[in-house]
Every structure is written in C-alpha cells, then in structure tokens.
From TrEMBL:
Keywords: Aminotransferase, Pyridoxal phosphate, Transferase
InterPro entries xrefs: Aminotransferase_I/II_large (IPR004839), AspAT/PAT-like (IPR050596), NHTrfase_class1_PyrdxlP-BS (IPR004838), PyrdxlP-dep_Trfase (IPR015424), PyrdxlP-dep_Trfase_major (IPR015421)
Organism name: Halovenus aranensis
Family: Belongs to the class-I pyridoxal-phosphate-dependent aminotransferase family.
BP GO terms, sorted: amino acid metabolic process
Listed EC numbers: 2.6.1.-
Gene3D superfamilies hit by this protein: Type I PLP-dependent aspartate aminotransferase-like (Major domain)
Protein name: Aminotransferase
C-alpha cells in the first residue's frame, strides 16, 4: 500500500478489484432511504427562480442556521454551515491551534483516522490517549496527558470506531479539562441520532466558551454525498480568544469554500421541518437488529467484540488474526467480507478490525465470518 493512500480508499479499491462477491463493511454510507421531505424539497428547488441558483450566504442559509440554532439552544451567530462535519472539525481544530497557546492536539486511541490526518496537516503535535477496556475515554487520563502545550482536545460521541457513548458526567469532566488548560474541546456529535444507550449528552449542555460542537446531516438523513454539516462556536461576546473564534472560522470557511450547496441546504431545511421523530426511531431499530445479528455471529466465531452503545460500527478481534492490512486483504479474498484494519485507528486496538453495519447484507457477512473462523 502506498503510504500516501488513505486506508479507507485502499481497502475499498482492493475490495472492488477482488475476484468474487465481497460485502462492503468499510464505509459508513447508510443504505436506507432519506426522509421523504428531503426528496420533495430537492424536486421543488429544481423549479425555483434563477436567483435561487446563485451564491447563498457564505456562512449558510439564514433559515437553516435559524432552525439549527433553535433546535440546539444557541444564537444564530454561533452557527456556521460547513462542507460536512469534516470541514466543521477542520475549522474547529485549526482555529483552536491558532487561538490557544500551545501546539498539541489530544486524540483518543483508537482514533478516527481523519482527526489524525488533520493533526498532521495542521503541523500540530499529537498525543494519543488510550481508551479503557470498554472503549470509553477516561477524562482523568486526558487530564494526565494535558499540559500548557495542549491547544485542542478532540472527542467523538457516539464514537467511531468503538461505538461508545459519553454521558453527562464524562462530557462535563472533559470540558473541565479544556478549561483548566485553556484548550478548546472539539466535540464531534455526528452520530447523535444513533444513541442506543440513552446516555448521549451533547457538549452544548455545558455552558463553556472552551467547546465547539460539530455535526452534520450525512448520517442522520442518509445523505453522505450532500456535504451539509455545521459547527457551533462560542458566542462572540465571550472573552478572547474564545469570542473571536467564530469570526475567524467564518473567514477561513469563506476562503476555502466560498459557500455550501444551496439546493442541498434548502432540501435539508425542509426535511428538518417536516420529518418527525418516527423516521429516526425506525432507523435506530434497524441498527439495533443488525447489531444483535452481527454480534451473535461474532460470539459464535469466538471473537471479542465491542457492544455498540451508539453509531453503527463494531470492532472485533479474532483469535490469531490481528487487524493488519494483510489480514483485511485475506478476509476480502477468502471470506468475501471487507472491513477496516484496527491499525488504521491507532495503537490501542491494532489487533482488532472494524466493521460498518450499514449494509442490508449484515447477516450474510456475519455468517461468512463465522464460517471462515
């Protein structure tokens, strides 16, 4: 594998070129229908006047920002619509590095590879804090690693790849650590609709200038290709450097993207307004059924595995088969199942493999793994 090739793309390409039928459990692309109101909104937009086809405001459509602000209990001035949660995280991490003293970013291990990649891209020092045996990030461990050099702490709940969910006490303690060391907590909550534990607590529940919350509609509305996300920064009336973060982020966002797709924002807004809670409940029920079927097969195969409290990923460890890229290739070639190597997510779960349960063939994939092992 070329060192410059992201592992996700390498595995997907390898699977696509493999002989025989391969079940894709690599990418987090939902396989279910988006909300009906979203399709309707896009159809209606096609007949809009031509002025609706021009540049939207750089920070996002005002109506969409108002809807998000109302739902999240923040001021509209704090909301920036971004090119998915990816850009939202990049803005938050970059602004934190620029505004805070120090050049260190603290990440959980295992870590979503794009956080790691952005840390390298931003030329920051990286500190990985291993999670506990259950996959949870202990705030006390974060505090032990934090120092005057810490500028940013990145957390993700519900989590990719471990599937854990952080409750209110954990979130509050993480904010406390950020405040103690004058750092910025970046809380990626893109899987907030996929909480099966009832434990999920948003960092927005803590009144602090030391936190930025990021999110998107990619997973919750099954529209990963639309790239509509958002970041919620501290209020502008907060003391510097926190109060200046949102203005600086707007400028960085504008120079990078100019603006975000207007039809995508318009359709998302209509879906937000017209989609009831039953849509999200049905999706969660679907995922719980898949998790149960997949983990039962892992149990039969003698594998250790994480029991997802949220998101839609399972990490598994098979006896004598560590989570290397070579073994992922072997599973693709010999079992017809494509997952991700644990080594792509850091060191603490390098013996594990990660599987995305966003495929209608989850049960078949589980049977193949059971038979193989």
């Amino acid at each position: 594998m070329d060192d410059d090739t992201p592992p996700f793309f390498y595995v997907m390409n390898y699977a696509s070129e493999a002989e025989g039928d391969v079940i894709d459990m690599v990418s987090g692309n939902p396989d279910w229908e988006p909300p009906e109101a979203l399709r309707e909104g896009l159809h209606e937009y096609a007949d809009a006047d031509t002025d609706a086809f021009q540049y939207p405001p750089s920070v996002g459509l005002r109506e969409l920002r108002e809807e998000i602000a109302t739902r999240r209990g923040v001021d509209i001035s704090q909301v920036v619509i971004t090119n998915g949660a990816g850009e939202a995280n990049h803005l938050a991490m970059a602004e934190g590095l620029d505004a805070m003293d120090g050049n260190e970013i603290i990440l959980a291990d295992p870590v979503y590879p794009y956080y790691d990649g952005r840390t390298n891209l931003l030329d920051a020092e990286k500190t990985l804090v291993p999670v506990d045996d259950d996959g949870h990030l202990d705030p006390a461990a974060v505090r032990e690693h934090a120092s005057a050099e810490t500028a940013v702490i990145v957390v993700n709940s519900p989590n990719n790849p471990t599937g854990v969910t952080y409750g209110g006490d954990t979130v509050e303690e993480l904010v406390d650590v950020a405040e103690e060391y004058d750092a910025l907590l970046v809380s990626d909550e893109v899987y907030d609709h996929f909480d099966y534990s009832g434990r999920f607590t948003s960092a927005l529940s803590i009144d602090s200038p030391n936190r930025v919350v990021t999110n998107s509609f990619s997973k919750s509305m099954a529209i990963t290709g639309w790239r509509v996300g958002y970041a919620i920064f501290p209020r502008e009336d907060r003391p510097d450097p926190y109060g200046g973060l949102v203005d600086s982020a707007r400028t960085r966002h504008m120079l990078t993207n100019v603006a975000i797709s207007r039809p995508a924002q318009t359709a998302v807004l209509q879906a937000l307004r017209e989609t009831g809670p039953e849509y999200y409940e049905q999706v969660r029920e679907r995922m719980v059924e898949r998790i149960d079927r997949f983990t039962a097969a892992l149990e039969a195969a003698g594998a250790d595995y994480t029991e997802p409290e949220g998101s839609f990923y399972v990490m598994a460890r098979f006896p004598g088969t560590p989570g290397t890229m070579e073994n992922i290739e072997m599973l693709i070639d010999e079992a017809g199942v494509a997952g991700m190597p644990g080594e792509a997510f850091g060191e603490s779960r390098s013996d594990w493999m990660r599987f995305a349960l966003v495929s209608p063939r989850v049960e078949e994939a589980a049977e193949r793994l059971d038979e193989f092992f």
